[in-house]
Write a structure and sequence with these properties.
four-stranded antiparallel sheet; mainly beta; Neuraminidase; globular; 40% strand; 2 helices; 8% helix
Amino acid sequence: MIPLFLLALAPSADPAQAWEKDEAVHLTNIKQVTFDFVRAGEGYFSPDGTKVIYQAEEKDTGNPFYQIFIQDLATGKRHRVSPGVGKTTCSYFRPDGKRVIFASSHEDPDAKKLHEAEYKLREENKAKGIRPRYVWNFDPHMKIYESDLDGGNMKCLTPKATQYTAEGSFSADGRRIVYSSGTAGNVQLYVMNADGSESRQLTKVANCYNGGPFFSPDGAKVIFRSDRKEKDRLQLYVINADGTGEKALTDNDHWVYWAPYWYKDGKHIIYTAADHSDPTARPNYDLYWMNIETGKTVRLTYAPGADVLPVFSPDGTKVMWTSNRDGRSPTQLYIADFVPPKE
């Protein structure tokens, strides 16, 4: 899920030769994964690392919103998992690799009317030469669903939800799902059993957004982002899975930090960040590495475009992220071999 602030797409002034050299220190063999989509992103690896699941907008389907796809990394073959109606986001493989979860608004009775309204708005903006800011809509019809890998045997895990409910991910043992739910301006984290039962609230700081949660590899902690200090100025936090011991990992009001994801050792994370201190400049997002015990950070990407939403492969040898690399092209998924920073 991309939060309520500007996704930076403007090119930087760094010479290509310099940024490519800087990037190659930790990211090698960079390859584009998705093609032929209007846009694609927020991908996650299957438990065996052979497939990825992600959200993408197809061309000429009558639906301008993201749908969920699974793609084989070796062959490039892909198929849609979600129903094809409404909006979807935040997909994730169940740890046994047999089922997936994702959030969808396909049961909204007015879903197709929203398709038409979105296309109309795009045409109006194009005619006026307007490039709108990306604003995340906390759709109240968004619920979490589970399905087979082909989209069959779909089941709603949150059937009683009456407000935005999305951003779900599994614990490593497959027994729990952590997710976000609420209304714009007040979204909290929750943990439920994998079958959707026994939901309990994890975060309790009201009137802010708390989202993008992931369990640590041992299931003891949850990493997430929140704008509790200032609206839309996201910072990173970690909390024990029982709701205790919450700790801020970042505390710089001039920067925006989001999309944290655990490394396999449970001591490091990868995340997205950008400097927002200059209101006249368009901030450009890059990927960073952090030791959550010492707070030490290392910058990983230097491309002219936006680099966001990073995740590791199960064995930690690869990074996948969403980017438009040159600052002009539509966003797609990329994968690279990962060389961890030395400490």
